[in-house]
Amino acid sequence: MAEHLVHVVDDDAAMRESIVFLLETDGIASRPYDSAIALLDRGDALEPGCILTDVRMPAMSGLELIEALKQRGIARPVIVLTGHADVALAVQAMKAGVVDFLEKPFQDHALLRAVRTALSQSEIVSVHSEIAERAALLTAREKEVFEAVAAGESNKSAALKLGISPRTVEIYRANVMTKMQADTLSDLVRMALMLERP
Description:
This protein has about 200 residues and is α/β, with parallel strands linked by helices.
């Protein structure tokens, strides 16, 4: 899996450099952008991780960036920074789906804590999308067996429910384990539970 980066978006060069320096001092990899458009230009090449963006920037604001990411199906946890914080803007940012909202000047420890939280969410999103990609490779019958096994049904009860023999369920179950890259039944159940969450 690619290294998770903090994508730092701020039109203020001094602020951008100071954030990158703080992150790297703490051992967190980052990539700076001087505008929201520069980040969007990376498109599908945008590495996993989180986005730390200023709210007020020329051409495209941080909130407009969040909307553009959603429209393009780019899921990354977002932290918003602003020097012009007000309650309405904070509420608007939270409704737009940001994971945190920090007012400049911020405390270093508060920024690092927010970034670590966002990066851990990013890893969960990456794992979820990998599992969803594997599940998409299952045939219709394999999906039925996957759901039955994940629901705790025995081969015999799954066979009765699906109208096939227990031996056939075993074969499908082995295929599901291989395609889902599950080593154990508990791995498979964990994956099914993860897929149930949005």
